[in-house]
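tl;dr need the bound structure. longer version: we got a ligand (NAP) that a collaborator sent over and nobodys looked at where it sits. i said id run it. heres the input, straight from their email, havent touched it
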Amino acid sequence: MPAKKIITVFGATGAQGGGLARAIATDANSEFAVRAVTRDINSDKAKALAALGVEVVAGDLGDEASVHKALEGAYGAFFVTFFWAHFSPEQEKAEAALFAKAAKAAGIQHAIWSTLEDTRELVPLDDDRMPTLMGKYKVPHFDAKGESNKQFVDAGVPTTFLHASFYWDNFIYFGAGPKRGEDGKLALTLPIGESKMAGVAAEDIGKCAYGIFKKGAEFIGKYVGVAGEHLTGTQMADAMGRALGEPVVYNKVPAAVYRSFGFPGAEDLGNMFQVYDEFEEKLNKLRDVNGSRALNPQLQNFEQWLAQYAKQIPL
Ligand SMILES: NC(=O)c1ccc[n+]([C@@H]2O[C@H](COP(=O)([O-])OP(=O)(O)OC[C@H]3O[C@@H](n4cnc5c(N)ncnc54)[C@H](OP(=O)(O)O)[C@@H]3O)[C@@H](O)[C@H]2O)c1
């Protein structure tokens, strides 16, 4: 049997990379083998990957040599940055540049870069429908990723540009779930008007990435979005209500109100939701559900995700 082709996965103990690592490791017939990168090879999550037969290696985006080493001898690589760990678009751009440089040096034949739109192409900085943040961004955690696509192109790395959607898991882990108001009723607060927003089960992102690696060459240079379903705030609230056995209302707030909530990242996310609302068609067209299902036949819709996870949503 020929040796399996190694795919180096950054963020392998996290949501996106974890889904990819598990998708490959649990497919006994895979032509690929995972090399999972983590800062702590002794963490429970790292050990859980090792238990699946995954090669787990130490690496840190702050340690350039470790990034190069993690890519040595690999066929492919999954690259993701971690905006919410530091809130710095400049750091994300520097890390993307390092990924591109290291991928080129290692001769990576297929990279997947987990990117997002540079929203300044939709809302220029002088457009005052939403505030400019940090002096030169509209949605910092999107814009830095989109701006970084160029790093991979310029370095000549064969790359697929993967665009994730809003993780439904944010309702569990990111404080985005419904809250009980003073009237005792559950309300889901989002500033997306009546638009449908692309959402996804986080685990499905990596499964779609696996589908892209399997298809290979035809996806190089392509922009691919992944989504499990496009839903309005009312549709999400209603589905949550059914899953929780208690009504949830959609509390539609203006983006400006959401930006003023004051939690870390509220302005960034307020602008992001406004872009999801005002550019619904464009964002959803890229995040095609049928295309995602073609890459990952197990793709979940929101009802299926809720059937598994609704009980974990903190109320
Ligand atoms: N939440 C959403 O709805 C959403 C939607 C689209 C895109 N995104 C983007 O997704 C990205 C995050 O991906 P994710 O959700 O998969 O992350 P995640 O679940 O937070 O996982 C992050 C993993 O990355 C590793 N990591 C963190 N800092 C590192 C460093 N300096 N060097 C090496 N590894 C490091 C950590 O592993 P160890 O601790 O094991 O080292 C951690 O397990 C963000 O940039 C965000 O903008 C999020």
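gonna send this back to them w/ a short note. The longest helix spans residues 89-106.
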